[in-house]
Every structure is written in structure tokens, then in C-alpha cells.
Design goal:
- 42% of the residues lie in helices and 17% in strands.
- The protein has a three-stranded antiparallel β-sheet. It has a three-stranded antiparallel β-sheet with strand order 7-6-8.
- The chain is α+β, with helices and mostly antiparallel strands.
- β6 and β7 form a beta hairpin.
- The protein starts with a strand and ends with a strand.
């Protein structure tokens, strides 16, 4: 006995479509007639179809004896069309998790609103622990790592970002196993130094109005200890050898 069916509503004007499943053992009407009266579970799509019935074509794609098979078939069709700009479904299930379809790029105003709203949100310790547990064992693909690396190339953290990172790391001790892993990964690598280092910060000598690519470059050029220049930059000293420095 057929107890479920997968259907599709298609807009004949612009080609947009909606895929759904009707899981009910109490359907007494022929599936085509039931679909006409039921329409779909989405209130928004249902309203659009009701108001402009002549613009929509409704078909039963496939019928099923088993509800689970019907649901799996519906989700497969949605997943196959998740990159299709015409699909009206907003979400689907994959690997037991709910995924959302979002073809509309967020404008700058929307991104700023999201950013402001998230700044007020503080994750609890239990929430952070839950996120950490869920990410254990997860490995980023080589393509993803390459994309992140490319997007960050040439970028330098602001003074505010560096201070925030420094504050968050205070009191944080790295385990022996982690130190060993870091050491092993960097073994044999020649780290760039001076202004060639990705972590270097350019400085300016106010006294001679000259800009240097890094603290080490300024120290080597002027014959001053790096530590003394750093002390001037952080405010621990007013000057060193009559020279005043600032971040450029």
C-alpha cells in the first residue's frame, strides 16, 4: 500500500520550484488530488501557490510504500539541487544534521548587524566545551587550509588584535605533547627573519623621520638594542640613545 509521495511545485513563469514529501497513512484521496488540497508544509510557498494557482504546476514525482524511503528520496533531490538558484527549499538534512541553503549574499549592512549582535553574545564554558568536543577528530581539507592561507597572506594584525590575543593567552600553558608536535612540524624549516617575517611590524623613528620594516631592521641600522626599541614602543622607556619610536 502506498503511504507516501514526493512532489514538486514549479512556477511556470520563472522556473522556481519546491520539493516536498507527504508522509501520511491517512491519505484517502488519489495522491494528485491530495496534493492539490494539501499543497505543502511551507506557509510562505503555500500562500504563493494559493494566490496564483494558474502560475504553478504541481506533480507527484514518486510514490512509496515506506515513509523513510520517501523522506530519503526527497532529501536526496534537495541535496542534488542545493546549488540551484531556482530551488525554494531553505534547508535539508545531511549526515543527521540540518543544513541551510542560502543563495543570497549578505550585504554590508546585514554583515554589520550580525557582527554587532554577536559581540554581545558570550559563550558559556559548557558551550565552549561542547564546541571543542564536537570538533575533536575533525580534519580540515588541504584545499580549505590553502584557501585560508591565501586569504591571510600579506595581512598584519592590528595593535588591538595583538593585545586581545596576548590577554587571552595569559596563564595558558601549552602541554608537552603539543610543544613536541610544534617542534616536529617546524624541524628543518628556515624561518624568515626581520622585515621578511610574516609577524614583523613596521616601526618609525620620529627623531630622524625614517620608517623601518621591523624592530630588528631599525636596531641593526641605528646600532640600538632591539629590547630598548621595544621598550620605547610599549611605553616602558621614553627614548633610547635620543631616539623615539612608534608603530607605523
Amino acid at each position: 500500500m502506498k503511504v507516501a509521495y514526493v512532489y514538486q511545485h514549479t512556477n511556470l513563469i520563472d522556473g522556481r520550484f519546491y520539493i516536498g514529501v507527504r508522509l501520511s497513512a491517512s491519505i484517502k484521496l488519489p495522491f494528485e488530488s491530495d496534493l492539490f488540497s494539501y499543497i505543502c508544509s511551507s506557509p510562505t510557498i503555500k500562500k504563493q501557490i494559493k494566490e496564483n494557482r494558474h502560475m504553478w504546476q504541481s506533480i507527484v514525482i514518486k510514490t512509496f510504500d515506506d515513509k523513510n524511503q520517501a523522506f530519503d528520496f526527497e532529501q536526496m533531490l534537495i541535496r542534488d539541487n542545493k546549488h540551484n538558484q531556482l530551488i525554494l527549499n531553505r534547508c535539508f538534512f545531511e549526515a543527521g544534521a540540518k543544513r541551510f541553503i542560502n543563495h543570497q549574499p549578505k550585504n554590508e549592512e546585514t554583515r554589520q548587524k550580525i557582527s554587532i549582535s554577536l559581540k554581545k553574545y558570550n559563550k558559556t564554558t559548557s558551550h565552549c566545551k561542547h564546541i571543542s568536543t564536537s570538533l575533536k577528530g575533525r580534519k580540515l581539507s588541504a584545499e580549505h587550509i590553502k584557501n585560508v592561507s591565501t586569504s591571510n597572506t600579506g595581512k598584519k594584525r592590528t595593535l588591538e588584535q595583538r593585545e586581545r590575543i596576548s590577554t587571552s593567552l595569559k596563564g595558558h600553558s601549552v602541554s608537552l605533547s603539543t610543544r613536541q608536535k610544534i617542534s616536529a612540524s617546524k624541524k628543518g624549516m628556515q624561518q624568515p627573519r626581520g622585515s621578511n617575517s610574516p609577524s614583523s611590524v613596521s616601526v618609525k623613528c620620529i627623531t630622524n623621520d625614517t620608517k623601518y620594516g621591523s624592530v630588528s631592521e631599525a636596531a641593526a641600522t641605528l646600532g640600538i638594542r632591539q629590547g630598548d626599541i621595544s621598550n620605547v614602543l610599549t611605553g616602558r622607556q621614553k627614548s633610547t640613545k635620543g631616539m623615539v619610536f612608534t608603530y607605523s
